[in-house]
Specification:
about 325 residues, alpha+beta, Rossmann fold, D-amino Acid Aminotransferase, Chain A, domain 1, Dna Ligase, domain 1, 3 domains, 5-stranded antiparallel beta sheet, 4-stranded parallel beta sheet, about 35% helix, about 30% strand, globular
Length: about 325
């Protein structure tokens, strides 16, 4: 049985749920917003995990779950807690429930897409960049600093540079312009990442279960996610087929990071050099599937269903 966790109306989770239904795999939906109706407990004895998950009036043995797809928002910001004081019993229960759920996901033998520990590499872009480089991808020349003069020297060297967050917190990638010079003093209180601008075609590659779905993005915007506001028109997305070498390189990168599902941001230069900017461990793939038509959600569903198949084979072999 597959466990889907999150807010059912959220587009990626809704799409995966539909695809899971299409493949006929049994599943349970855990709606985060109804946490007050849920309970979970587990214990670990001699390497075996036992426990139960209650969702409203239904109780499930944790060992029944062969795969998990957690796509959850930060539970501290759930709408049900918006009027709750910091020390309220409801807020405390919500945190305790989610903490126990996540701890179980980290140790369950079920297929989890993705566990928290492997996702942590994205919390530090500089750290993740070092791991990316080990797989043969180019990395833009990078400066992380809180010294405005170093930034000015870096810009003088490269001409066109961009800046963005170092952490996993989403930031809008921007080109550093002359108008930003006075604001550079602000980085003294917030070290910032600057990179040489790389010209070429943006490529998002989603890897899941040995499959790779590649989308080329054409836009004049620096950050194509905000193409309309930056360039006046939305980005144009189209499906592309990767070379066998690049596909394998992407799959190996995801595997080395311990990610079952990943969104890899690449840029291919006019000279066919491939730069990698980061690996997203919880990709909002619906933007790419909706605009380019690749069946990414179906790939996720197939991979989740494979957990059930693996479990069935294991049971048959024991018998």
């Amino acid at each position: 049985m597959i466990l889907l966790c999150g807010i059912p109306s959220e587009t990626p989770l809704r799409m995966v749920t539909s695809r899971v239904e299409e493949v006929g795999a049994p599943y349970v939906m855990l709606n985060q917003r109804r946490f007050a109706e849920c309970e979970i407990w587990f214990e670990l004895n001699h390497g075996e995990i036992t426990g139960e998950l209650r969702i409203a009036d239904d109780v499930y043995k944790l060992r029944e779950f062969t795969a998990v797809y957690p796509r959850m928002m930060d539970d501290r910001f759930l709408p049900e807690l918006s009027d709750e004081p910091p020390d309220s019993p409801l807020r405390s229960y919500c945190r305790s429930f989610h903490d126990t759920l996540i701890r179980w996901m980290e140790i369950t033998p079920a297929l989890v897409v993705n566990r928290c520990a492997p996702m942590a590499s994205n919390s530090s872009k500089p750290y993740q960049a070092q791991l990316i480089r080990e797989h043969g991808f180019l990395i833009p020349e990078t400066l992380i600093t809180n010294d405005p003069e170093l930034v000015r020297d870096f810009r003088a060297k490269h001409g066109r540079i961009i800046y963005k967050s170092i952490s996993a917190v989403r930031s809008i990638v921007q080109v550093l312009g002359d108008e930003d010079d006075e604001r550079l003093e602000c980085i003294r209180w917030c070290p910032t990442q600057f990179q040489a601008f790389v010209d070429g075609t943006n490529l998002r590659v989603h890897t899941i279960g040995g499959e790779a779905f590649a989308t080329a993005v054409r836009s004049e915007a620096t950050d194509y996610r905000y193409a309309t506001s930056q360039a006046g028109e939305p980005a144009a997305l189209r499906e592309v087929v990767l070379s066998d070498e690049l596909k394998e390189q992407c799959l190996q990168l995801s595997k080395s990071l311990g990610l079952e599902f990943a969104g890899i941001d690449l840029k291919v230069t006019p000279d066919d050099e491939v730069y990698c900017f980061e690996v997203n461990p919880s990709p909002a793939f619906s933007y790419y599937e909706g605009n380019a038509g690749q069946p990414i959600s179906a790939g996720v569903a197939r991979h989740l269903a494979s957990g059930l198949a693996i479990c069935d084979r294991a049971v048959r072999s024991q018998n």
